[in-house]
Structures are given as structure tokens and as C-alpha cells.
Design goal:
Blueprint lengths: L1 H14 L1 H39 L4 E8 L10 E3 L3 H10 L3 E16 L4 E9 L3 H4 L4 E4 L4 H5 L4 E4 L1 H7 L9 E4 L2 E9 L13 E5 H7 L13 E6 L5 H16 L9 E5 H44 L1 H9 L4 H34 L15 H27 L3 H6 L2
Helix pairs in contact: 1-11, 2-9, 2-11, 2-12, 3-8, 9-12, 11-12
Length: 413
């Protein structure tokens, strides 16, 4: 019986080809639009998370700042720089800081090899910097404590620097000149993210004591200064307490109130991640709402088509009842029609959205965007919602017609 009902359903859909195709396209469009909008939002979320992870996990950046001459007024504030001694004080006194490294950065140093020369970013860091930032090694080794204590002239270079200075050749064991000073390359970093979008790929990293000796910062108040400090709290939940602890230490050393957060220039990836999470949640709700409106329009189309279809076939229902069809048989037929049409249309919408996302995977997306992806829960929700709408829209008028006597049904115009 089920096979006969299925065959009858297919013949009915084929008999109204244009109407069936247009209805299915409307459903597929609603499902595809919903999945694409949510997928774009998830792709943006994933891209931002990936960007943060390419920097490192739970990292806090502390730069210099401004000390107000009058408390609460920044119109006459004087700038201050962080120093290497500030780093030592934080490392010794801060109990909520797990890892900390000063960074001394110069971008005016000429880097040369026997094959090529370029201006790169030269960073002086401590050996534990690799535990704070994301620095995967491709070949060689990372710098160690002896390199820093003995002020050795060793360097670890980024992936893009390898391509520029040693094209097609091994770099580990070779030498480079940094403003005429010879350094041995002991390690090469693996590519991080897309080469043109992550500055770590164009950096040369050297021990900070070597950097302080050969390439100190220039300008006013530059004696003993560092560019900034990277540190990690003991846990992500401790980041506010760790930040206040660091502020108090720096404020005490520079003679101002360390609780005044406006005096500091800093960037907190933990707080950034929380802010991004709230933005992404709001965006997902908005995009999901737009998709649901589109989905609702598709559902209205299904309901209209099914109502018209059942109304047109009241005589057919009467004739089937006259030759022995039961109330249950008639409901089953319209149930199968609604379910089959919405299921096929939903799968078509899912396939279309997946195909479009595969095409976007081959496109160079802007920074911070990852390839959109189908969210399985959204796909199931869309298909089930439309299926329910189509089935209910068919069963309600079909039940009314099936309850009529065969004579009354055959008499309907």
C-alpha cells in the first residue's frame, strides 16, 4: 500500500510540474539563505578566533603610557616608557603573572645575507617568549637562556624572511648581518597564518640582552627602555586581577597612581575575545533572524500551494472514498506529498548552500574571515520546520475533505 501511495504521490507531483518546481525552489531558497547567512557569521567568528590564536593564548600587551601632571587631567600629561627594570620588578613581584617577556622592537635595521638584503622587524625577546606567543619552529632551535645570558649573536627568522634572504636554500647554520653585525641563524619559524597577514613571518628574533647591547631604543627617555611587555595571567579568569597587580607595580616605579587605567596603553586578548564573542552572538541572532524571515516566506508559499492543491482535488478525494479508500489512506497520501516535497527541497537548499561555500573556499577572503561552514543544527531546524509546515498545510484541508461523504465531495466545484 505504501508503494502504491508513493507512486500516486510522484504521479501527482509530475502532473503539476511547474507548480511543484516553483514550490520546491521557494523552499530550497529559504533553506539555502538561512544556512548561508548563519554560515557567513560562523566563518567570521572562526576567522577572528583563528587570528587571536595565531598571536597566542591569553596574552596581555602593556606599552608605555601617560602620567598626568594633575590627577584626573591628561592635557598636561607626560609620556613614560616601560623599562627592562620594570620587567624585572613585575617578574619578581607579580604573583598572578604566569609568564612575562619584554620586547625590544626596531624596524630600522638592515638585514642582509649573501643572497639578498631587506628591512625587517628585529625583535629582542627573552627565551620564554615562545611560551607566550605562537611561534612554531620549522627547522633548527629556539634561543635558550645561555644565548641571552652570554649575549650571543644568534637569530631565529620568520618564514617570509627565509624566502627573502635565503631563496630556495637552507638558513640554519648560515649567517646574516644586522646593521653590519654578524648573527648565526639557529632556527626558522613555520609559516603562521597567511604570510602577508601575520607580521611574525617577517621578523628576526634575537636574545634581548644582545638587542639591548647592540640596538637599544632611540629618542627621549630611551635609556633602558623596552618597546612593550607581553605577559600571561595565571589563568584567564585572573586577567583583571593580574592587570591591576602589574599596574600597581609600574605605577609605583614611575611615581603615579597605578589604579588609574587611563595612564596605560595596553591590549588584552582575553577581553578582546570576550567582546568578539558578544558581537558574534548578536550577529548570529541577527543573521539567523533574517534567515528565519526568508524561511517563513518559503513556509507561507508551501501552505498556499498545499491548500490550493487539496481544494482542487476534493472531487478526487470523493471518488477515492467512493471506491473504498479510507480516511487513513487519504491522509497518508497528502502526508507523503508534503513530506516528500519539503524533504527534497530542503536537501536541495542544503546542497546549494554547501556548493556555494565550497566556491568561497577558493576565494581569497578578507583578513579575519574564514570559509563559511554549514551549521548542522541550523540545517536540521530549517528542513524540519519547513517539513512540518508543508505536512500540516496538506493534512488540515485533506482531513476536512476526507471527513465529507463521497457524495458531498464529488459535488464540490
Amino acid at each position: 500500500m505504501l508503494r502504491d501511495l508513493l507512486a500516486q504521490t510522484l504521479r501527482t507531483l509530475w502532473g503539476h510540474k511547474l507548480r511543484s518546481v516553483l514550490t520546491m525552489l521557494g523552499i530550497a531558497w529559504g533553506v539555502g539563505s538561512l544556512l548561508l547567512l548563519i554560515g557567513l557569521g560562523e566563518g567570521f567568528r572562526a576567522g577572528q578566533i583563528q587570528q587571536l590564536r595565531s598571536i597566542g593564548e591569553d596574552i596581555m600587551f602593556l606599552y608605555g603610557g601617560r602620567i598626568p601632571a594633575v590627577e584626573g587631567s591628561f592635557s598636561s600629561a607626560r609620556p613614560f616608557r616601560l623599562t627592562y627594570d620594570d620587567y624585572l620588578a613585575i617578574r619578581t613581584e607579580a604573583k598572578l603573572v604566569r609568564e612575562i617577556s619584554p620586547v625590544l622592537n626596531r624596524q630600522d635595521i638592515r638585514a642582509s645575507s649573501e643572497f639578498n638584503s631587506t628591512n625587517g622587524q628585529v625583535f629582542g625577546v627573552t627565551p620564554n617568549y615562545s611560551r607566550i606567543r605562537t611561534l612554531p619552529l620549522m627547522t633548527g632551535r629556539w634561543m635558550n637562556d645561555l644565548d641571552n645570558i652570554e649575549k650571543r649573536r644568534v637569530a631565529v627568522i620568520g618564514h617570509e624572511m627565509l624566502k627573502n634572504m635565503f631563496p630556495g636554500r637552507p638558513a640554519v647554520g648560515s649567517s646574516i648581518l644586522l646593521n653590519g653585525h654578524r648573527f648565526e641563524v639557529v632556527g626558522v619559524l613555520a609559516k603562521i597564518g597567511r604570510e602577508d597577514r601575520n607580521a611574525t613571518n617577517i621578523r628576526v628574533l634575537v636574545p634581548i640582552n644582545t638587542m639591548r647591547m647592540l640596538f637599544p631604543l632611540k629618542g627621549d627617555n630611551a635609556e633602558g627602555a623596552v618597546s612593550y611587555v607581553n605577559y600571561q595571567p595565571r589563568t584567564a579568569d585572573d586577567h583583571e586581577s593580574a592587570k591591576q597587580e602589574v599596574h600597581r607595580i609600574v605605577g609605583r616605579r614611575h611615581g603615579f597612581d597605578g589604579l588609574d587605567e587611563d595612564s596605560f596603553d595596553e591590549w588584552d586578548t582575553i577581553q578582546n575575545a570576550k567582546t568578539f564573542g558578544k558581537i558574534f552572538d548578536a550577529m548570529s541572532i541577527f543573521l539567523g533572524g533574517v534567515g528565519l524571515v526568508t524561511l517563513g516566506l518559503g513556509a507561507i508559499g508551501i501552505i498556499n500551494i498545499m491548500l490550493v492543491s487539496v481544494s482542487e482535488r476534493t472531487k478526487e478525494i470523493g471518488l477515492r472514498k467512493a471506491i473504498g479508500a479510507t480516511h487513513r489512506h487519504i491522509l497518508w497520501q497528502f502526508f507523503l506529498e508534503g513530506a516528500l516535497m519539503t524533504l527534497l527541497s530542503g536537501l536541495l537548499g542544503v546542497a546549494g548552500a554547501a556548493g556555494l561555500m565550497r566556491l568561497l573556499d577558493r576565494v581569497q577572503l578578507p583578513a579575519g574571515f574564514d570559509t563559511p561552514r554549514i551549521v548542522p543544527a541550523s540545517a536540521v531546524l530549517a528542513v524540519v520546520s519547513l517539513s512540518v509546515a508543508g505536512i500540516v498545510a496538506g493534512l488540515y484541508p485533506a482531513r476536512k475533505a476526507a471527513l465529507m461523504t463521497p457524495v458531498d465531495a464529488l459535488r464540490m466545484e
